[in-house]
Specification:
It comes from Paenibacillus violae. Keywords: Carotenoid biosynthesis, Cell membrane, Glycosyltransferase, Membrane, Transferase, Transmembrane, Transmembrane helix. By secondary structure, the chain is of the alpha/beta class. It has 14 helices and twelve strands. The protein folds into two domains: about 110 residues; about 220 residues, Alpha-Beta Complex (Spore Coat Polysaccharide Biosynthesis Protein SpsA, Chain A), CATH 3.90.550.10. Helix 1 runs parallel beside helix 13, helix 6 packs across helix 13 and helix 12 packs antiparallel against helix 13.
Length: about 375
């Protein structure tokens, strides 16, 4: 075994251990059998050209055992049949009046909150869906258990339907890890904010913090809103959505997938704790190191090195599967080729940096958003 092969194996082994510390756990909600009286709820769904994706969410809301809520769909300048579909499910459709670049979703959420009748507000992205009939009551009862204070946000469980959608696996892992609170050290690090696709709060505190109006223009409204609550010393609880809420990301194709991740990753990385960021970099590098060690051992025709490097490579496969399956139903076999997933992530992240710090603008859903 050469020195370079040994170095690759050492760094790869270190990266596996760092990965364990980096993504120690992801807490999930547990269904409670008994709940106290729950207040009336307003469900606010900002929607821009979501005619192809909003129906599963609206159908899942109709299927809930808890029905004491209103559904407000805020149509954010859609050019398709989003409003018509929403009305066919009995939702009340509001028109977002905002026209400023980058303020669309935040202003839509604020507009919906001002028209809300409920004491509690649940913001859901149009591409989400509640996973069973008890999802809503489980979400609400947990918030009640936490004193109905601050924010309860869930990262939806990513459902994959087409092969290319597995390219989002590493992104999903990094999004969750980047919230800072899922490492071995847990709450010792301050959370980076909140998850945006599923976010529950009470209306009084929402208005007290300034809500989405305060963060108009923020590219990452979820992180900014969580920070706004923390600035007022209100708690922010971030949890995994498996069993409660799911989403399917970027079904339109790879172009949409790249645009979607590019608009947020470089900006979002600023909110990640430096130590968590260092662990993330080491873990990502480990994929390439284990691959390099395997290739080198095969080229050198060294049996010992091949056994060690193959074992380490497969360990990385299993670890990445474990992490990814916490986040979504990604195909297990795809992780046999984990270097491709990490390479795609790295290339997209570099492109996101270029858009954010050189071009100073990102594109999403036909809007150019200044960053």
């Amino acid at each position: 075994m050469t020195g370079s092969e040994g170095l690759n194996l050492i760094i790869g082994s270190l990266a596996v251990l760092v990965g364990v510390m980096m993504f120690w756990s992801l807490p999930l909600l547990q269904t409670r059998k008994k709940v106290n009286q729950l207040p009336y709820l307003s469900i606010i769904i900002p929607a821009r050209n979501e005619s192809g994706r909003i129906s599963p969410l609206l159908q899942s809301l109709q299927n809930q055992s808890f029905q004491s809520f209103e559904v407000l769909v805020v149509d954010d300048h859609s050019t398709d049949h989003t409003a018509t579909i929403a009305e066919s499910f009995g939702a009340k459709v509001l028109q977002n009046k905002a026209v400023d670049s980058g303020s669309g979703k935040s202003m839509a959420c604020w507009h919906g909150a001002l028209h809300a009748k409920g004491r509690w507000l649940l913001f859901l992205d149009a591409d989400t869906s509640l996973m069973n009939a008890e999802s809503l009551i489980c979400l609400l009862s947990f918030y009640q258990q936490k004193g109905a204070k601050g924010i309860l946000s869930l990262q939806p469980y990513h459902t994959v339907h087409r092969l290319y959608e597995n390219l989002s696996a590493i992104f999903n892992i990094i999004v969750i890890v980047g919230m800072n609170v899922y490492s071995f050290w847990g709450p010792r690090f301050k959370t980076a904010g909140s998850f945006g696709p599923c976010l529950l709060c009470n209306k009084e505190e929402y208005l007290f913090t300034g809500g989405h109006q305060k963060i108009l223009g923020a590219v990452l409204d979820d992180l900014a809103l969580g920070q706004a609550f923390m600035d007022k010393n209100l708690p922010v609880h971030c949890m995994g959505g498996k069993g409660i809420v799911s989403f399917r990301m970027y079904p339109e194709g790879i172009k949409s997938l790249v645009e979607g991740w590019c608009k947020s990753f470089a900006v979002g990385s600023k909110s990640t704790h430096p130590f968590v960021m260092l662990m993330t970099i080491i873990w990502i590098s480990g994929s390439f190191m284990t691959t390099g060690a395997l290739i080198s051992s095969i080229s050198a025709n060294s049996l010992t090195a091949m056994i060690l490097s193959s074992t380490l490579y497969l360990t990385y496969v299993l670890q990445t599967i474990q992490f990814a399956r916490r986040c979504g139903n990604f195909s297990r076999y795809i992780f046999l080729f984990h270097p491709i997933l990490f390479l795609f992530f790295s290339a997209t992240f570099v492109y996101s940096l270029f858009q954010t710090y050189i071009l100073r603008t990102v594109k999403w859903k036909g809007r150019n958003i200044d960053v």
